[in-house]
Design goal:
Elements: H1 6-37, E1 43-47, E2 56-57, E3 64-65, H2 67-79, E4 83-87, H3 91-99, E5 106-109, H4 112-115, E6 118-133, E7 151-155, H5 159-167, E8 172-176, H6 179-188, E9 193-197, H7 198-205, E10 212-213, E11 219-228, H8 235-247, H9 250-258, E12 263-264
Parallel strand pairs: 1-4, 7-8, 7-9
Antiparallel strand pairs: 2-3, 5-11, 6-9, 6-10, 6-11, 6-12
C-alpha cells in the first residue's frame, strides 16, 4: 500500500521554518544586547592595577588577570565584540568613567552611593574587608587601631575612605592615590596600616615580606557588574550572565587565575 509523504514533508517544512525563525529572533536579540552594552562596537572594560578583583599581572607568565579583566572578556565574547581594556589608577576613576559613558563594564563594590551613578547587576561575589600591617607593626589586633597617632591608609575615593572616616574617632584616615603608592608609604613610614578588601591586601602582602593581615573583618564588599545608567534594557541579559558564570565554573576560574583570596559566598 502506498502512503502519501505530503504530511511528513509539510511537518518538516514547518519545523525548518520554526528553527530558522527562532535563530533569527535569537540573533536579533543578541545584536540588540550588543548595541546596548557595547554601543561603540567593542566592550570597553575599566580596570585598575593591583587588585585581583580588577587587574593583576602574573609575575611568572606576565599574563594579566582579574575579575573585571576576565569576566569582561567573557561578556565581550558572548556579545561577539572585541574587548578593549581601559586602565585607571584607582577604582574611583573607573566609576567616574562609567558614569560618563566612557567605559561599558567593570566589576566593583556595589554600594548605594555608587548606585546613584552606575547600574549594578545582582552580586557576583562577596569579599571580606580587612587591615594590613607591615612586619614591624606593634598593632596586634583590630582593637588597637582607633588610637591617637595611628594612620590608616585607604584608597582615595574608595568606599573604605568614606566608611572608616566615619568609623574612627581617634585614628587618622589617610587617602592614598593608589595601591602602588600605599606600598611606598609603608616603606616611608607615612601610614601604619592599610584598609581595603582582602584580595587586594593579600596582593600587597606578597610584595612586603613579613606583612600580615589582621584577624577578622570589618565588613564585606558585594562585587557586582557595573554598567552605565540608561542601559537597563539589557539588565535581564546581564543578570542572566552573572548567574551563568557563577554556576558554570568561569567565576571560579577567574578567581583562581587572579590569585584572589579573601572571597566569601555571594550575599
Amino acid at each position: 500500500m502506498a502512503y502519501s509523504t505530503k504530511p511528513t514533508a509539510m511537518r518538516r517544512g514547518i519545523t525548518l521554518a520554526f528553527i530558522v525563525a527562532t535563530l533569527a529572533v535569537a540573533s536579533a536579540h543578541a545584536d540588540g544586547e550588543k548595541d546596548v552594552l557595547a554601543p561603540t562596537g567593542k566592550l570597553r572594560v575599566g580596570v585598575y592595577p593591583g587588585s585581583p578583583t580588577s587587574l593583576v599581572t602574573d609575575p611568572a607568565t606576565h599574563q594579566e588577570h582579574g575579575l573585571s579583566h576576565d569576566i569582561g572578556a567573557e561578556l565581550a565574547k558572548r556579545l561577539n565584540v572585541p574587548v578593549a581594556y581601559v586602565t585607571f589608577p584607582r577604582v574611583a576613576d573607573v566609576i567616574a568613567a562609567i558614569k560618563n559613558g566612557e567605559v561599558d563594564f567593570t566589576v566593583t563594590n556595589a554600594t548605594p552611593a555608587r548606585a546613584n551613578d552606575v547600574s549594578f547587576s545582582p552580586t557576583l561575589i562577596s569579599v571580606e574587608l580587612g587591615y594590613l600591617v607591615p612586619a614591624n607593626s606593634k598593632i596586634a589586633g583590630v582593637g588597637e587601631i582607633d588610637r591617637p597617632g595611628v594612620r590608616v591608609g585607604v584608597t582615595k575615593g574608595s568606599t573604605s575612605e568614606k566608611t572608616l572616616g566615619a568609623k574612627f574617632t581617634n585614628a587618622k584616615v589617610v587617602p592614598v592615590e593608589s595601591v602602588k603608592v600605599a606600598v611606598a608609604q609603608f616603606a616611608s613610614g607615612e601610614i601604619d596600616l592599610y584598609a581595603t578588601n582582602k584580595p587586594t591586601l593579600y596582593e600587597i602582602s606578597d610584595s612586603m615580606p613579613g606583612a600580615r593581615i589582621l584577624d577578622g573583618r570589618w565588613g564585606l564588599e558585594h562585587m557586582a557588574v557595573a554598567t552605565p545608567k540608561g542601559r537597563e534594557q539589557a539588565s535581564a541579559f546581564v543578570s542572566a550572565f552573572v548567574k551563568d558564570v557563577q554556576g558554570n565554573g568561569q567565576l571560579e576560574k577567574a578567581q583562581k587565575d587572579a590569585g584572589l583570596r579573601g572571597a566569601a559566598k555571594a550575599e
